[in-house]
């Protein structure tokens, strides 16, 4: 069997960029007629068909992509998905977003619903899911990408950041501030690999310095402000009182601030609080949160570009995006007697 | 022409509820066989076809609804849409969400994209759009509903609350606290009837008491924390300094708090700030925001129920939902010299 010709072959023969070939095939109105004709001649000469089993043929395209996120609430995914949507809009693609409520069975149902609606490509969050979900996407040859993820799975590329390494850095910063009585508020780790990786990263840092995270000082709760405030109150009523509450995200940290204040505790003089994500909430609260800045917009735009390339039959490389430690007022030195 | 038989006629003849008829037609596996057969016999006897020109026929259903919201960011729409999604999920319907970026042309494109994907029904936000958008939905006989709205348009029912009346109540509360030097941070009112109605409500209250809202004290900005902080700084540097910043939503109010604090002003001793929406942010900031509580979850669940009924060929009544004034620490008496 002869090697199939590629988009790059078409581009070379037509004397244009691969992006122009994609455009000529998928949005011909946006390409000058002379260019379009050169591309069409090259496609015909090479017998070119895109990689994805015909799915990516211009005539089969719906120019609709799907994304399934765990929740729309509390802005964790909103900024990244919004940036992805903007980038896709500029390319004439509509993004349709469904939610799974952190439920892998619901995610599988939404995947089938999106496939039934004929989407060209699908973005999923993280790694927690049964193998069947990605197998179905592979069987249907629908390009798909994992966001907020840091390893490939079943051939699906990712764009994301290392949650474990980031949480470890944050915990090291906390230790460097003299804290030893450490509590943690985590999201529910079942079916949420990001939450689990953040707990693992904190444990790693503590273990390396011989500091314990007592079992009763680690609480798993939903990403909910009220739940976090109540859990922080429970943690901060313990004797000895924790000197810092390390939180799985900024929503939990904002709730911890409310809980600490409700007990009359000053932050950071009596207790420190740190978050993760750097959503708006992180700088709206007082004191502002020491947190991990996740480049949500960069991740979302990269995801859009990668998915478009995949639909065009191109091979893409997974991308790990750097996060940044944001040192703000909610983290102070460990209180005396720590 | 004979009057067409209705879902209620079928229910009466079959001796079951209209909900059971809907279920028998749309999710037959969820209905006992004997009941299903009674319903099918009644449908056949009456020659029943649902209202929406055959769209609602069980065989035509995709069990997929669409919603188009202005933005996913900053949680304004997230809670209501999430509640709608949950209610629809319980009924076996997948909600696909697209965003318009407060752009009526983009909204029209997303409507066409959702129609092309075969959705059974569509939810839209508010009233700002060209007539053609609803005309298209009517022509296609796709049931549709307006959320965050308070009047019907082109036959489309609504579920929402009166933004103008709510903003007027908030402004009256501010006046009752002795404030006369009033500034307002509004969202961009072009293509956003909710933002415009809130400004109108504030003006109404002030006019009724003979208090001026100076033109230079009303700024329109995007719903963005940083933009709001910068705008608040501009307002609060004016002489005489406004005693209160009335904000078009909680994101703007949270930004105004940041701006006030950056000038060394105490809230509410030196300046008061009030918001609108009562999203999580409202109680996460310090002091917590005096705001209007919008029952987002109730609105979202009602929208789901209404759209399902419409797809079943039923006539629904529009619903106005009450809002609530939440009096919290960010509003104080007017500072001396006001």
TrEMBL record, chains A, B:
Residues 5-59 form the HTH lacI-type domain. This is Transcriptional regulator, LacI family. GO terms for molecular function: DNA-binding transcription factor activity; transcription cis-regulatory region binding. InterPro entries: HTH_LacI (IPR000843), LacI/GalR-like_sensor (IPR046335), Lambda_DNA-bd_dom_sf (IPR010982), Peripla_BP_I (IPR028082). The keyword Transcription applies. Keywords: DNA-binding, Transcription, Transcription regulation.
């Amino acid at each position: 069997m002869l090697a199939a010709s590629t988009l790059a072959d078409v581009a070379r023969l037509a004397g244009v960029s691969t992006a122009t070939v994609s455009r000529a095939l998928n949005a011909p109105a946006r390409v000058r007629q002379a260019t379009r004709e050169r591309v069409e001649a090259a496609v015909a000469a090479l017998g070119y068909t895109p990689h994805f089993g015909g799915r990516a043929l211009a005539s089969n395209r719906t120019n609709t992509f799907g994304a399934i996120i765990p929740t729309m609430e509390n802005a964790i995914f909103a900024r990244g998905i919004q940036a992805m949507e903007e980038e896709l809009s500029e390319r004439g693609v509509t993004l349709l977003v469904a939610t799974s409520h952190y439920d892998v069975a619901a995610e599988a149902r939404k995947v089938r619903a999106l496939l039934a609606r004929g989407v060209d490509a699908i973005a999923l969050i993280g790694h927690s899911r049964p193998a069947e979900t990605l197998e179905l996407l592979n069987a249907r040859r629908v390009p798909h990408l994992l966001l907020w993820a840091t390893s490939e799975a079943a051939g699906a590329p990712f764009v994301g950041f290392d949650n474990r390494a980031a949480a470890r850095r944050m915990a090291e910063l906390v230790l460097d501030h003299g804290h030893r009585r450490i509590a943690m508020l985590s999201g529910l780790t079942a079916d949420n690999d990001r939450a689990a990786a953040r707990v693992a990263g904190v444990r790693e840092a503590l273990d390396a310095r011989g500091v314990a995270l007592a079992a009763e000082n680690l609480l798993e709760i939903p990403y909910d402000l009220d739940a976090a405030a109540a859990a922080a109150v429970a943690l901060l009523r313990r004797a000895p009182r924790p000197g810092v509450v390390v939180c799985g995200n900024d929503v939990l940290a904002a709730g911890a601030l409310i809980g600490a204040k409700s007990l009359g505790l000053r932050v950071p003089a009596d207790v420190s609080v740190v978050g993760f994500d750097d959503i708006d909430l992180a700088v709206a609260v007082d004191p502002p949160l020491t947190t991990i800045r996740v480049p949500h917009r960069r991740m979302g735009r990269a995801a859009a570009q990668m998915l478009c390339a995949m639909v065009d039959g191109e091979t893409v490389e997974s991308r790990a995006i750097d996060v940044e430690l944001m040192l703000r007022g909610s983290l102070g030195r460990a209180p005396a007697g720590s």
